[in-house]
Amino acid sequence: MSDRADTGLRGSRLTLRIVQIVCFTFLAYLVIGMQLAVLPPFVHDDLGLGAVIAGLVISTQYVATLLSRGFAGRTSDTAGPKRAAWIGLLACAVSGLLMTAAALLRAWPMASLGTMLLARLALGMGESCVATGCIMWGIGRVGSEHTAKVISWNGIATYGALAVGAPLGVVLVSIGGFVMIGVSAVALMLLALLLAWRRPAVRVEAGERLPLHRVFGRVAPYGMGLALGSVGFGVIATFITLYYASQGWAGAALTLSAFGVCFVGIRLLLGWTIAHFGGYRVALASLLVEAAGLFVLATASHVGVAMLGASLCGIGFSLVFPALGVVAVERVSVSNRGAALAAYSVFIDVALGVTGPLGGWIASGGRYGPMFVVAAALSLVASVLTGVLYVGYGSRVRG
Predict the structure, then answer these.
(1) CB atoms within 10 A of CB 3
(2) 81 Cβ partners below 8 Å, 6+ apart?
(3) Which residue from 156, 163, 339, 357 has the least number of CB within 10 angstroms?
(4) Are 12 and 321 in contact (CB under 8 A)?
(5) Angle formed by the axes of helices 337-362 and 51-78, to 10°?
(6) 201 - beta bridge partners?
(7) Percent of the chain with pLDDT strictly greater than 70
(8) 3-class SS at 3?
């Protein structure tokens, strides 16, 4: 069954229709979030491997997401976004099975590590298909004029799930050990697959399919800004637990939750600013706030100050993806917007894939402050790039 977008949707009916789709994003990212606070310590302490390997395990997911973005985008454009999302949920379920096996192989660190890397690869593919599929599925159900709203709500689902998932993962491990992370992931994805199967599909847009390299070229300037601005999130998600441990602080999971709560709060309160002020201006302001938060985090001498810095990062990073994403997807026709969204998202995958090993190398001596300073500097570079794009392309549009 399929349906066309109802362009007359307003208010709560519009929001409900979007939420009915992005709930699958929430469930998929809940699986991802459950691993954030417990996977690095498991690799670092339980398996006896170092910070670089812990960063590599985290980043493997992002590499897989990067490699599968093209598949996700084209599947969404040609077979429909519901199909793409369903494939992604299935991949996340397979990842849960593999993560369960990795936990059971704990006594054999190399076998456990290898199985865990496979699990992260499957999770990365699942992430790309769910993220692209659900956004395009949501846009198909409510109309392209609500693109910013769909992207914003999808982000709320994403980082809301991360905020809930981090402490949930800690609780699950305390109850039943690391194996509970994999078992819970399988259960959540089976539920998601059942619910997604019952949701109506949307029609596939007809039209010329541009080669991926041409789509990529059109969104690349915006993707570069996204990549530079995403490093801050990457270092927080990957290393905040180890950073707190190096300082003798407790509450790393709560700090991840604070980041997520601030992220979601800004999306809810200020998501409308993208349509009102334009993507360029909102992205520029957001990147500056993120840079300030990273500097605070780098120089924190108390856990409360560190949490403030992470919260500012959540506030700043919140609107970067939708603000730049809205102007990026407008560079192609409707029939290529799944591919454009996937190509745009590649840049965050590259940033997060590099962040783990590079951040681990910078912090290999146990000093995490310089890592956050580098991330702050890259956010400032992203703000300059956004300003250049606004003065250049933005001014031509206005003219």
Answers:
(1) 11
(2) 132, 133, 134, 135, 136, 137, 140, 201, 202, 338
(3) 357
(4) no
(5) 180
(6) 2
(7) 93
(8) strand
Residue showing tokens 């970067």: 320
Instruction: Give the rounded distance of the alpha carbon of 338 from its chain centre.
Output: 17
Listed as ranges, residues in the chain with pLDDT below 70 are 1-11, 206-208, 365-366, 393-399
| Contact between 55 and 357 (Cβ < 8 Å) | yes
Structural tokens at position 315? 């506030």
- Which residue is listed with tokens 């704990």? 106
* Distance between CA atoms of residues 58 and 127, nearest Å: 13
Instruction: Give exposure, 291-305, as e/b (b: 16+ Cβ within 10 Å).
Output: bbbbbbbbebeebee
Q: In three state form, how does the secondary structure of 233-262 look?
A: HHHHHHHHHHHHHHHCCCCHHHHHHHHHHH
Question: What pLDDT does residue 288 have?
Answer: 96
- Residue whose structure tokens are 């976004």: 81
pTM of model > 0.70: yes
Helix (H, G, I), strand (E, B) or coil at 206: coil
Amino acid 398: pLDDT: 42
Helices (H), 37-146: 39-41, 51-78, 81-104, 109-142
